[in-house]
Amino acid sequence: MTTKTELDKILTALDATQTLEGLQGIIESICKVFSIDHAMYHWVDSAGDHYYFGTYADAWIQQYQDKNYTRIDPVVSGCYQRFHPVDWRRLDWSTKPAREFFQAAMEHGVGNQGYSVPIRGPNGQFALFSVSHHCEDAIWDNFIDRNSRDLILIGHYFNRKALEFEPDRAPEQAQPLSPRELDALTLLGIGYSRAQVAKTLSISEHTLRVYIESARFKLGALNTTHAIARAVSCGMVII
C-alpha cells in the first residue's frame, strides 16, 4: 500500500509538469511505487485525437494501433459504458476476437490482471487510467482492496493535467449548479455510494437527495446517471 508521502509526491509531480512528455516519467514512477508491471493512460481528446503514456512494450502499442484493437478491446468497450472503475476479470472475454486479443496482450507482457479507471471530461473527452500485473487472483484482489482509492485519485489527476493541454475547449452553457450539487454529482460519479457521499459532505441522505434532484432538474436529466453524464459533457464536473 502506498504511503501518504508517496502519493503526495505523485500528485505534486502531476501538478508541476508542463509538458505531455512529462507525464511519461510520472507514469513510470507509479509502477515502482505500487510494485506493478505496467501503468497506462489513454486519452482521447475532444477533437478525437489519441494519446498514450505508459509502460507497455513499444511493439504492443504499435500492434494495438496497427490492428485497431480499440474496436474489440473489452477494456475500452467495458469502461466506455461505465463510470466506475473496472477489474478486467469482470469484463466479457467470451468472444473469439476478445480471447485472441487477450492472448496477444499476454504474449507482449501486459499481464493477466488489470484495473481501469474510466474518466470523462467536457465535450466528449474520454480517458482510461489502467494498471496491470501478472499474479494470482487472490494477490490482485488484495492489491485492489488496498490501493483502489489511490489509483482512482491518480487517474483523475492525470486527466485534469491532460485537460490543461486543451486550452481552447469551450464547454456547453447550462444552468449553473451549486457547489453542493457539484460535489454530490462528482462523488457519485467516481463511485461513492449515497451513504458515503452524505458522510463525506456531512449531510443527511435526505438532504443529499434534495441536492441530486435539484441538479437533475437544472440539467434536464432523466435520472442521476443521466445528470452525471450531462454535467460531465458540459464541463461542470470532471470525473
UniProtKB/TrEMBL annotation:
Q: Give start-end ranges for the coiled-coil region(s).
A: none
- What protein does this entry describe? LuxR family transcriptional regulator
Keywords, A to Z? Answer: DNA-binding, Transcription, Transcription regulation
Please report a single Pfam family linked to this protein. GerE
Identify the residues that the record assigns to the HTH luxR-type domain, covering every copy.
Answer: 170-235
What InterPro entries does its record include?
Answer: Sig_transdc_resp-reg_C-effctor (IPR016032), TF_LuxR_autoind-bd_dom (IPR005143), TF_LuxR_autoind-bd_dom_sf (IPR036693), Tscrpt_reg_LuxR_C (IPR000792), WH-like_DNA-bd_sf (IPR036388)
